[in-house]
Task: inverse folding
């Protein structure tokens, strides 16, 4: 009787373990299905813009200022192909994103990577599991971040918020506007060479 009881107990435990494994596999499969790969291509180039009655050469992504907004969900994988059509090297930094085992995708120029050379390209790939928030991305070499930037929104998986659901999301980006080429601005800042005609800086 003792042996029969042991076999019966082992059978129940094996069945429970099998059910648990099946449940975990189903849960993992559901998470895999929910997660997505969000892919963008950023072409960085020059563009003339007239603002405050002055036409200025600026640096933009895909002809947009601010740049494209990235919308993802917790758990997604982000893939961004950057094509550099400038005469200067640059990197793109994902401000506020925790790079978990993907530090090489952080975009900190001369720290985690060398700048993307003129005419070159680079692909950033990272995951945003366990992260939620309204962040931003920007160039991370010289003063290019003044115009090469955009919103980076990570929404929760279940779509729930700790406040009444908003009718609409309108990210507001506050940046700088200079009446001077940003590369020249960077040179002057590095040399401490500002003349008596100060640059105009406004919030957009």
Result:
């Amino acid at each position: 009787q003792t042996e029969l009881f042991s076999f019966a107990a082992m059978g129940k435990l094996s069945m429970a373990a099998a059910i648990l494994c099946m449940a975990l596999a189903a849960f993992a499969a559901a998470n895999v299905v929910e997660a997505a790969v969000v892919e963008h291509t950023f072409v960085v180039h020059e563009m003339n813009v007239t603002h405050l009655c002055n036409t200025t050469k600026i640096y933009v992504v895909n002809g947009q200022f601010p740049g494209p907004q990235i919308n993802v969900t917790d758990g997604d994988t982000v893939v961004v192909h950057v094509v550099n059509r400038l005469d200067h090297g640059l990197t793109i930094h994902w401000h506020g994103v925790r790079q978990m085992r993907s530090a090489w995708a952080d975009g900190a120029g001369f720290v985690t990577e060398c700048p993307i050379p003129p005419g070159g390209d680079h692909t950033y790939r990272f995951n945003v599991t366990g992260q939620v928030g309204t962040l931003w991305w920007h160039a991370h070499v010289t003063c290019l971040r003044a115009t090469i930037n955009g919103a980076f929104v990570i929404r929760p998986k279940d779509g729930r918020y700790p406040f009444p659901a908003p009718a609409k999301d309108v990210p507001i980006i506050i940046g700088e506007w200079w009446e001077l080429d940003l590369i020249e601005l960077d040179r002057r800042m590095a040399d401490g060479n500002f003349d008596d005609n100060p640059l105009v800086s406004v919030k957009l």
The domain at 37-191 is CATH 2.60.40.420 (Immunoglobulin-like).
